[in-house]
Amino acid sequence: MLLVLCVDLDDDLGRKTGIPTPVIGDDDVTEAAVALATADPEDSDVNVLFQGVTVHDELAAEGEAVEVAAVTGVDGPDVKANRAVGAEVDRVLAELSTGEDVSAIVITDGAQDESVLPVIRSRMRIDGVRRVVVRQAQDLESLYYTIKQVLADPETRGTILVPLGVLLLIYPLVVVANLFDVEGAAVLGLISGGVGLYSLFRGLGLEETVDGAADAVRNVLYAGRVTLITYVVALALILVGGVQGTETVEAVRGVADGPLPPGATLTAFVHGVVQWLAVAGVTSSLGQITDEYLAGRFRWRYLNAPFYVVAIAVVLYAVSGFFLPPAPGVTALQLADLAMALAAGTLLGVLSTLTFAIAESQVPSGEPT
């Protein structure tokens, strides 16, 4: 038995007419084609359905045992659409349920729909593939209409017109640059760089990433997130800390007899920057804790963060000060001072952990454990 199979990979038939698929039988496929033509006369799948009916009638007139059916996929990724078509082909074969081997003539409207051919071939033999191409009048009106339709598509318009506009602007920009005694090569370089960045931007699909980042920032602003402010303050504190660390390195180098070894340079930088990093860490963690509390997700253990930051900062400040010579901006510590600082940092971390663990076990927080 021969099956004329009309393929609509993106399910225009189902989405635009509401007709359940698969559609089996000459009369049913004809009615589906008329319904789709009524809903969207410009849809190329209309021609696929009518072509399938025509091929069915021609083969039936020759005495061939033939049936016609229309199967659809989904409006989504190719893999998902191909699987949907495969499932509908299985239903068609089950409803035909003849004892004969079934082979198919596949009717499509383009290469995209033909990507499903391996799925169909895994279920039956394919005797032929016919791609429907609609003949258009080759006059000025038809050409104007085609160009108008292409330019009306935002994606096509952005892909074609933007690079074309940049290319057309090259010569006038070079002329203007020469009027202001600017080298034309510099203008060409800037334009080339702009076109290259645009091509990479479009080719890598970064517009979705940028749109997502913009939406995230907008949501943070509208939601009143405290972290937005605390992160900005923390960033400013880190920059100040970097400057302070550099100044500490210069102060230690000024009192040293010779150039500082890499280890001493790193120690001086840590000694100068660690205080500012600690304040930045406490600020950002307090902002995060506040947002978690406002969102109803507060846990007592979250309060450990600022105490841990302070404990680590105390240890780093003491250790770096112990190894540095007396200098402006340097707190030189003795061995006893170092021992006390290490003990204080350890106790601070341990006590905060125990305190908030007990609090969490005794007092319910915003989120159940």
TrEMBL record:
InterPro entries: DUF373. The keyword Repeat does not apply. Keywords: Membrane, Transmembrane, Transmembrane helix. It holds the Pfam family DUF373. The chain crosses the membrane at residues 158-179, 185-201, 222-243, 307-326, 338-359. Signal peptide: none annotated. This is DUF373 family protein. It comes from Halorubrum halodurans.
